[in-house]
Write a structure and sequence with these properties.
The protein is built from seven helices and 18 strands.
């Protein structure tokens, strides 16, 4: 009998057995799953990755081939079928979205007996709909029973309109250039950090990036401030006030502010639209329409 080396040799079969079990598990996983390489035609694979992974869920994985932009899906046949369906829905040629904006005073609506149903606030912004009423293209309001009322022109701004490809970003509206007042708490609070460096004037803008989801338009709104001073012009995005609005095709929603900072910011942002827009009770009207 050989003694001494047996104790060490007995460990080898267990390691081999562990590796064999792992190999068997991998083989079983490979047999239970399929591999499909999907190549988007109109959209970037990186933009579709999250939606594709959500589609397969726990039944598979989706990885991006950085070299080709293809999406490699590993999963059950059902998971791959769901991934293909999502790809077919999202991988379409970008379409044009028309976005119209305006502003009106909440007090003017209240005088007509029109109430605004506000949703939960997203930071300093709120999204609302008129209760039992409809905003018309000419600035009027259609009440219950088809009665149409006109609002004071000083309290309703002229509509502005932009056309932008889905996924692209454009300036939706810009406020008037205004003198910077350090004592105005809305500027440092809303813009994330105190403005410094001899700032003399500021101008607020609102950027919009639309995406089409079914028969709805999802619009990401990104406030931005431009400062002017001795050192020149500086652009600063207001990350604390970014919000996303979901609008049915052709529908009009209202954008308001849910805080003191937001109300001041909104008033300054809309001050370039009309004389009445300098009031703190102004809200923005936003309509999104898909153009084929």
């Amino acid at each position: 009998m050989i003694k001494g080396g047996n104790r060490h040799n007995r460990r080898i079969p267990w390691r081999l057995l562990g590796g064999l079990l792992l190999l068997l598990v991998l083989v079983a996983y490979a047999r239970a799953n399929e591999v499909e390489v999907l190549r988007p035609q109109h959209r970037l694979g990186a933009d579709l990755l999250a939606a594709m992974q959500a589609a397969v869920g726990d039944e598979g994985t989706v990885t991006l081939d950085q070299r080709t932009g293809a999406l490699v899906v590993v999963g059950t046949p059902a998971a791959i079928a769901r991934a293909k369906k999502v790809l077919a829905e999202l991988d379409v040629a970008p379409r044009m979205v028309r976005i119209e904006v305006g502003s009106l005073a909440q007090g003017a609506l209240a005088s007509l007996g029109v109430d605004i149903a506000w949703s939960a606030a997203a930071g300093p912004w709120r999204v609302g709909h008129l209760r039992d009423a409809e905003l018309l293209d000419d600035g009027g309001v259609r009440l219950r029973g088809g009665v149409t009322q006109r609002l004071d022109r000083n309290l309703v701004s002229t509509r502005q309109m932009i056309r932008v490809l889905e996924g692209e970003t454009a300036v939706l509206v810009s406020g008037a250039r205004a003198a910077y007042r350090p004592d105005r708490h809305a500027w440092p609070n809303a813009f994330g950090a105190p403005l410094s460096g001899g700032v003399s004037h500021v101008q607020a803008s609102l950027l919009a990036r639309p995406r089409i989801i079914g028969d709805e338009v999802q619009v990401e709104l990104m406030p931005r401030v431009v400062t002017f001073g001795p050192s020149g012009m500086r652009v600063q995005q207001v990350n604390e006030m970014i919000t996303t609005v979901r609008v049915k095709n052709g529908e009009t929603v209202l954008l308001g502010a849910s805080s003191t900072d937001g109300r001041s910011f909104t008033a300054d942002l809309l001050s370039g639209l009309s004389v009445g827009a300098a009031r703190n009770d102004m809200v923005m009207t936003l309509r999104a329409r898909i153009e084929q």
